[in-house]
Automatic annotation (TrEMBL):
A cellular component term, taken from the record's GO annotations: mitochondrial inner membrane
First-listed, main subcellular location of the protein, grouped into a coarse class: mitochondrion
Species of provenance: Tupaia chinensis
Name of the protein this chain belongs to: Twinkle mtDNA helicase
GO process terms (BP): mitochondrial DNA replication
Keyword tags: ATP-binding, DNA replication, Helicase, Hydrolase, Isomerase, Lipid-binding, Membrane, Mitochondrion, Mitochondrion inner membrane, Mitochondrion nucleoid, Nucleotide-binding, Transit peptide
Keyword set includes Ribosomal protein: no
Top-rank taxon: Eukaryota
């Protein structure tokens, strides 16, 4: 059930892996460095469901405190090379097949905690072999930047280079695969020859290139196709239309799927924002069911979600420095800034507010590109007549905001024109493939959500299932055992940092 047919008992014993029969789980121990005692455990449970296998990970202690490099006690001080994998099962396969020192990252492709970096300083060469999909490839490039790209090499995903365990089960030569690892660093791209494999990877993984899908907003997937790293999204809407409430649910949706998120809320306090997001996460008012608060708060706490502590006007330099730190420490891949106007008063470059805003937008654009991090920037619109809908030109400032942005989203509020409660989201710009359009939104006051129409019980149950409250039947993948994550309604992998992460395979 775990795909370990070709992994020997001797390999399991060397790594101190055990099988807990009552729980149908493999147990991976977390030792202090050099094997100086046990600090925690990771349990990987398996459950057969027809032709599929459902995998569930549980960590003790909880994921946020689980900083383990599986295999660390087997590393010698004389070892100068190491292979890093995203799963313990893959490290077993690498060690058995190649004899190379190998370590598994505790939180897979989600993040590389800085507390682990000192344990990797001794190695002159580090090979990342994290998986067989585009998300693993992007994570490998990101982690290599932390560890000095000049000493890192990456195994590119492909049919002949699947995950290590899958390669072992297919009878491939894992040592040969490691020899094909590409340097993570080069001085410059000088020809298409160096780009051709990148292009092939994008052509072979069209849906993954499109980004992570929203599970709560399928119409947004239809237009934007997904949420992609390195892009800048500008979001606007009339005063009082619910911009902050919508954008918090928009970001929460991605965060529950493992998108490491940093919130910069300069207009409302973090306590109030967290309360709104927790209500949206639980899909209901917790003040009416306080006995369930701890249960929901525990689930919410395990999300890869962080908040800037700023409130009121801030300098763009201070904000960018904070974002840089968050990307390095927490592997942040989505930053929400609500809103741009709170940085205007600190800029002394010019007394011209338009010039100051253009400078700030340029700084966020550069940050998104340089750090392969998506930035969602809320900007207030110009004052318009109440009977007119907003346009791209309604965004405050010059045209630079819409020119620099990859996506422009407008929350339209037509209640003054067509009656109360008529809201819709307009995708006014989409640089990825050009699709634009609108779709209606209906605000649910009890859950503070725009994605769930009132009295829609089926949709409510679906959201709660996605948040892990109710177990759902996973879909089967098309690769070997333990080779693919289960699909949510968005087609994207669930949050690897959450307990109860499900993985399925044939």
């Amino acid at each position: 059930m775990f795909g370990l047919t070709k992994v020997t008992d001797d390999t399991l014993r060397r790594f101190s892996v055990r099988y807990l029969r009552p729980a149908r789980s493999l147990v991976f121990p977390w030792f202090f460095p050099r094997g100086l005692g046990l600090r925690g455990l990771k349990l990987l449970g398996a459950e057969g469901q027809g032709d599929a296998v459902r995998y569930v990970e549980t960590t003790i202690p909880r994921p946020g405190a689980y900083h383990n490099l599986f295999g660390l006690p087997l590393i010698s001080r004389r070892d100068v090379e190491v292979v890093l994998t995203s799963r313990e099962l893959d490290s077993l396969a690498v060690s058995q097949s190649t004899g190379q020192p190998t370590l598994a990252l505790p939180r897979g492709t989600a993040c590389l905690p800085p507390t682990l970096l000192p344990y990797l300083e001794q190695f002159r060469r580090i090979v990342f072999w994290l998986g067989d999909d585009l998300r693993s490839w992007e994570a490998a490039k990101l982690f290599a930047r932390k560890l000095n790209p000049k000493r890192c090499s990456l195994v590119r995903p492909g049919d002949q280079q699947p995950s290590p365990l899958e390669a072992l089960n297919q009878g491939l030569n894992l040592s040969r695969v490691l020899r094909t690892a590409l340097p993570a660093w080069h001085k410059s791209i000088v020809s298409f020859r160096q780009l051709r494999e990148e292009v092939l990877g994008e052509l072979s993984n069209v849906e993954q290139v499109a980004g992570i899908h929203w599970s709560r907003f399928p119409d947004l997937n239809r237009l934007l196709k997904g949420h992609r790293k390195g892009e800048l999204t500008v979001f606007t809407g009339p005063t009082g239309s619910g911009k902050t409430t919508f954008i918090s649910e928009y970001a929460l949706d991605l965060c529950t799927q493992g998108v490491n998120t940093l919130w910069g809320s300069f207009e409302i306090s973090n306590v109030r924002l967290a309360r709104v997001m927790l209500t949206q996460f639980a899909v209901g008012r917790l003040e009416e069911q306080l006995d369930k608060y701890d249960e929901w708060a525990d689930r919410f706490e395990d999300l890869p979600l962080y908040f800037m502590t700023f409130h009121g006007q801030q300098s763009i330099r201070t904000v960018i420095d904070t974002m840089q730190h968050a990307v390095y420490v927490y592997d942040i891949s989505h930053v929400v800034i609500d809103n741009l106007q709170f940085m205007m008063g600190h800029e002394q470059l010019s007394t011209d507010r338009i010039a100051a805003q253009d400078y700030i937008i340029g700084a966020f654009r550069k940050f998104a590109t340089d750090n392969s991090c998506h930035v969602t920037l809320v900007i207030h619109p110009r004052k318009e007549d109440d009977d007119k809908e907003l346009q791209t030109a309604s965004i405050f400032g010059s045209a630079k905001a819409s020119q620099e942005a990859d996506n422009v989203l407008i929350l339209q509020d037509r209640k003054l024109v067509t009656g109360p409660g008529k809201r819709y989201l307009q995708v006014a710009k989409n640089r990825f493939d050009g699709d634009v359009g609108v779709f209606p939104l209906e605000f649910n006051k009890s859950s503070l959500t725009f994605s769930i129409p009132p009295k829609s019980k089926a949709r409510l149950k679906k959201i709660k299932d996605d948040n892990g409250l109710v177990a759902k039947k996973p879909s089967s993948g098309k690769k070997g055992a333990a080779s693919r994550n289960s699909e949510t309604c968005s087609g994207q992998p669930p949050n690897p940092c959450q307990p109860g992460t499900a993985k399925t395979s044939k």
